[in-house]
C-alpha cells in the first residue's frame, strides 16, 4: 500500500511539473528563450487562487490562466522580443524580472507563506488517494489533451508547429511569426498560472514558490526533447515518480540530488532528449 501511495504522490507531482513544463516546452523550444520568470507566473497563479478562494477553485483556474498569460504577453512584447537570438541575455533579463515580481508579491501579500483552503468537494479521498491529487492528475491530462487538439486540429496550432520547425520558412510562407510568438507566450504563461492554482492544493503559497519548480521544469523540457509534447509527458511523470520514491526512502534534499544525477546521466547518453523535433532546416 505504501508503494501505491508513493506512486500516486509521484504521479500527481509529475502532473504539476508537466503543467509547468508544457509552457517552457513551447517558449524554449520555439523561440529559444530561457524564461526564468516562468516560475513567477506559477506564483501569480497561486496567489490568484488565494485571492479568489472565496469564489471557487474552478473560477480561479481560468482567471489565473488569463492573468498569467496576459503578463507573459506583456513581458514578451516589452522586453523579450528585443533579445531574440541572445539566449544568455534573455536568461539574465528574465531572472531580473523574476526578482522584481517576487518582491512585488512580498509587498502586496507579505513575506510569510499563506494557505489556500481546498473546496469541500475535494476533501476526503478514495482509500489513501486524496481527491485533491486525483483532481490535479485529471487537470493535467485535460490540459495535455487540449494542447494536443490545439496543435493538430486548429490553424493557430499548426502555425505554431510550423514556426517551431523552421521560423524562416514559416515567415516566407506567410505565417505571422510575431503573432505566433505572442500566442505561444500567452499559452505557456497561462499554463504556468494553472499549475500555480494546482499547487495550492498540495502546499502553501509564497513569493518564492516558482523557484522551487523552475529547475525541474527545465530538466523535463530538455530530457523530453525541445518542443515535444509526448517527451514532456513521459519525462514529467518519470521525474515525479522517481523523486517521490527516492524521497520516501531518503529525504527531500538527497532526492533532488539523485534526480539531477539521473537526468545528467541520461543526457550524456541521449543529449537530444527522448524525442527529436524533426525540421527541414539545413543546420
Automatic annotation (TrEMBL):
Protein name (database record) = Urea transport system permease protein
Q: Which organism is it from?
A: Catenuloplanes atrovinosus
The highest taxon in the source lineage is Bacteria
NCBIfam families per UniProt:
urea_trans_UrtB
**GO cellular component terms?**
plasma membrane
Q: What's a single GO BP term from this record?
A: amino acid transport
**What is this entry's stated membrane topology?**
Multi-pass membrane protein
**Hydrolase: is it a keyword of this entry?**
no
Q: Does the keyword Cytoplasm apply?
A: no
**Which family is annotated?**
Belongs to the binding-protein-dependent transport system permease family. LivHM subfamily.
Amino acid at each position: 500500500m505504501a508503494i501505491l501511495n508513493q506512486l500516486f504522490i509521484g504521479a500527481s507531482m509529475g502532473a504539476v511539473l508537466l503543467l509547468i513544463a508544457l509552457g517552457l516546452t513551447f517558449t524554449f523550444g520555439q523561440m529559444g528563450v530561457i524564461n526564468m520568470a516562468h516560475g513567477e507566473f506559477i506564483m501569480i497563479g497561486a496567489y490568484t487562487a488565494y485571492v479568489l478562494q472565496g469564489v471557487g477553485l474552478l473560477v480561479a483556474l481560468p482567471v489565473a490562466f488569463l492573468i498569467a498569460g496576459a503578463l507573459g504577453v506583456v513581458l514578451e512584447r516589452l522586453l523579450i522580443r528585443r533579445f531574440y537570438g541572445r539566449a544568455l541575455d534573455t536568461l539574465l533579463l528574465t531572472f531580473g524580472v523574476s526578482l522584481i515580481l517576487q518582491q512585488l508579491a512580498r509587498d502586496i501579500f507579505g513575506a510569510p507563506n499563506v494557505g489556500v483552503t481546498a473546496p469541500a468537494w475535494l476533501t476526503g479521498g478514495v482509500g489513501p488517494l486524496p481527491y485533491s491529487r486525483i483532481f490535479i492528475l485529471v487537470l493535467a491530462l485535460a490540459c495535455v489533451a487540449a494542447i494536443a487538439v490545439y496543435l493538430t486540429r486548429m490553424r493557430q496550432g499548426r502555425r505554431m508547429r510550423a514556426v517551431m520547425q523552421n521560423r524562416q520558412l514559416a515567415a516566407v510562407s506567410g505565417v505571422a511569426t510575431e503573432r505566433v510568438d505572442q500566442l505561444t507566450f500567452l499559452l505557456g504563461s497561462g499554463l504556468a498560472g494553472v499549475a500555480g492554482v494546482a499547487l495550492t492544493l498540495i502546499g502553501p503559497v509564497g513569493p518564492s514558490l516558482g523557484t522551487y519548480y523552475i529547475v525541474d521544469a527545465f530538466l523535463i523540457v530538455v530530457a523530453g526533447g525541445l518542443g515535444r509534447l509526448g517527451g514532456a509527458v513521459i519525462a514529467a511523470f518519470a521525474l515525479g515518480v522517481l523523486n517521490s520514491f527516492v524521497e520516501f526512502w531518503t529525504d527531500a534534499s538527497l532526492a533532488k540530488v539523485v534526480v539531477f544525477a539521473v537526468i545528467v546521466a541520461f543526457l550524456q547518453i541521449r543529449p537530444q532528449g527522448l524525442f527529436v523535433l524533426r525540421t527541414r532546416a539545413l543546420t
